[in-house]
Amino acid sequence: MKSGIQWRFAILLLLLLTAVSRVTHAGEGIVIWKDYDCGFFILQTKVGYGLYEWVAGPYPNESDVIEGELKAEGEHRVNNKTADVPTTIFLDTFSEKRAAISARIPAKCKVRPGYGPFEGQ
Fold first, then answer.
1. pLDDT in tens, 50-76
2. Are strands 85-95 and 49-56 parallel, antiparallel or unpaired?
3. pTM as predicted
4. Rounded-to-integer distance, Cα 92 and Cα 25, Å
5. Which residues constitute the domain of residue 65?
């Protein structure tokens, strides 16, 4: 009987640790710049800024809160908490400085009529 309790405790502990590790890897950011025409947007997080390309799902709007893996390179499925829907995004670059993100906005976004610049400091 004692080994059965230990086995259950070990499984419960493993499940708890898995859940905690998922929460600690999830980030949260707010959309502070977007360009629907070229498919890019910028998120501001607690630790910096990210330039992302929209891949699939609903396109995020300004002020939307996005939750998920935001600093890892590549494509990720994240949750748009504002709209309560999943969206797939691709991280182009992440930096602590706005100027670094501003410099990485693709030229195809900057040449479009009505381009609103994202000024960095």
1. 999 999 999 999 999 999 999 999 999
2. antiparallel
3. 0.74
4. 19
5. 27-110
